[in-house]
């Protein structure tokens, strides 16, 4: 969904003034935000009742943002925003506001009572008590945020650029890039949509949606990794980032010539990939499996039995069992030279109904995280150029972002190291 609309002169200024009034009413001044969610909304996060759905709450505070290393959950909305804040002060207020809303919504609690003459402080779509419901909010910054508007040019993450068009891409400008990324993930879609409405309400005038895609994951069928719309398990070979050594090697930024404020963050790649499912459904199962290099039913590599068996490429140098141009072989050759190019992927399916020609419009929101864009995602993408699957998929949007370090405690806020 894009928001390319024409407005009367001054409309943007009015939106900004409304955003600033809202921020002022909630926090008084930027420095007052440190008091927590109650300082912004009057809401009592500490009085949160147990989640009605029974979904465990995900900690908001910590060295890293939630929604990166955690397991994929059922529902998501991924949004890219253009920042409409006028200057660095307004951008700082915007980030304070996003932080406080995320802090309250992930914890849950009672929305503020504003009085019978005011509009309600909450949409009410989750009931009178907001459950935490396992909600995760993940915020990133795009390369365009580091232009001349906010004085951040010298603070840009070392490897952050606009996402290029790779071979076989069909990128549509309206679905690409952005100043900020926001991913909302929860076990239930009403929690995601409630969060989206809440954040949109509190940040109106500070940022405007550039594009949005909603997604979901299916339950494992019959077990193991969930499947994508092509019928194959998606993300089987993810690295185990619960191992701190693996996470330090592949996931989190820490030094390496990067600005000091980036420590604890991670490079985020988003790719919106349409899958030509009606075309795919006419391909034989043997050919489908050879393109992936895995059995569709079990997810096992073609030379194995179980999903998580390690393919034995060295014992099959000419690709007699697993073709040399299969997806798993090109994406991860499993050599000493490519061990550092692994990525952590968090994929979601999407379904947008039908296109203008009456064809099914569905595909994958591919999201991955890594320590180094060039060494990891770009290297993988270049290896995949020309793979047989390109006839059945069409990447059309997305962007590169830097997922901000986590919020350490109630006195901290998203982007504090960048903007303080």
| SSE succession | HHEHEEEEHEHEHHHEEEHEH
Shape: globular
Total strands: the figure is 11
Distance between the termini: 33 Å
**Any low-confidence stretches, pLDDT <50, length ≥5?**
1-14, 23-52
Share in helix: 10-25%
Most strands sheet? 9 strands, antiparallel
Structural class: alpha+beta
Total count of helical runs of at least 4 residues? 10
Mean pLDDT: 90
Percent of residues in β-strands: 15-25%
Radius of gyration: 22 Å
Describe the protein.
The protein has 420 residues and is α+β, with helices and mostly antiparallel strands. It is 23% helix and 18% strand. It has ten helices and eleven strands. Strands 1, 4, 5, 6, 7, 8, 9, 10 and 11 form a nine-stranded antiparallel beta sheet that branches. The radius of gyration is 22 Å and the shape is globular. The protein starts with 10 loop residues before the first helix and ends with a helix. The N terminus is likely disordered.
Give a topology summary:
Blueprint: H1 11-27, H2 37-41, E1 75-83, H3 88-107, E2 108-109, E3 130-131, E4 136-141, E5 180-186, H4 189-203, E6 207-216, H5 244-250, E7 266-275, H6 277-280, H7 285-292, H8 327-331, E8 344-345, E9 348-354, E10 360-370, H9 374-383, E11 393-403, H10 416-419
Which terms summarize this structure?
420 residues, alpha+beta, 9-stranded antiparallel beta sheet, two-stranded antiparallel sheet, 10 helices, 11 strands, 23% helix, globular
Compact overview of the structure:
By secondary structure, the protein is of the alpha+beta class. The chain has ten helices and eleven strands.
């Amino acid at each position: 969904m894009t928001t390319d609309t024409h407005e009367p002169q001054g409309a943007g200024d009015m939106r900004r003034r409304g955003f600033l009034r809202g921020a002022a009413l909630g926090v008084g001044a930027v420095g007052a935000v440190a008091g927590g969610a109650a300082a912004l909304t009057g809401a009592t996060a500490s009085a949160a009742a147990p989640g009605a759905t029974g979904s465990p709450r995900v900690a908001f505070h910590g060295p890293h943002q939630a929604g990166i290393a955690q397991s994929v959950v059922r529902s998501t909305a991924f949004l890219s925003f253009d920042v409409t804040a006028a200057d660095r002060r307004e951008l700082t207020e915007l980030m304070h506001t996003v932080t406080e809303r995320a802090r309250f919504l992930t914890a849950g609690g009672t929305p503020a009572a504003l009085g019978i003459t005011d509009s309600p402080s909450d949409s009410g779509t989750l009931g009178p008590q907001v459950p935490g419901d396992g909600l995760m909010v993940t915020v990133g910054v795009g390369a365009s945020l580091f232009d001349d508007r906010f004085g951040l040019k010298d603070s840009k993450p070392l490897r952050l650029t606009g996402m290029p068009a790779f071979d076989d891409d069909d990128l549509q400008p309206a679905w690409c890039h952005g100043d900020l990324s926001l991913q909302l993930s929860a076990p239930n879609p009403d929690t995601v949509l409630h969060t989206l409405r809440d954040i949109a309400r509190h940040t109106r005038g500070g940022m405007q949606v550039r594009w949005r895609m909603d997604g979901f994951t299916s339950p494992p069928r019959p077990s193991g990794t969930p499947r994508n719309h092509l019928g194959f398990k998606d993300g089987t070979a993810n690295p185990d980032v619960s191992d701190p050594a693996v996470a330090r090697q592949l996931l989190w930024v820490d030094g390496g010539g990067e600005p000091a404020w980036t420590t604890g963050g991670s490079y985020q790649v988003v790719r919106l990939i349409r899958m030509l499912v009606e075309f795919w459904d006419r391909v034989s199962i043997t050919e489908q499996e050879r393109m992936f290099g895995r059995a569709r039913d079990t997810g096992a590599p073609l030379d194995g039995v179980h999903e998580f068996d390690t393919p034995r490429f060295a014992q099959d140098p000419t690709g007699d069992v697993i073709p040399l141009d299969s997806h798993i072989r090109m994406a991860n050759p499993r050599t000493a030279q490519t061990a550092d190019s692994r990525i952590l992927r968090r994929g979601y399916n999407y379904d947008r109904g039908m296109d203008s020609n009456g064809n099914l419009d569905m595909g994958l929101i591919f999201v991955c995280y890594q320590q180094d864009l060039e060494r990891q995602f770009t290297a993988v993408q270049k290896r995949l150029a020309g793979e047989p699957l390109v006839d059945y998929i069409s990447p059309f949007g997305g962007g590169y972002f830097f997922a901000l370090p986590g919020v350490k405690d109630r006195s901290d806020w998203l982007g504090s190291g960048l903007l303080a």
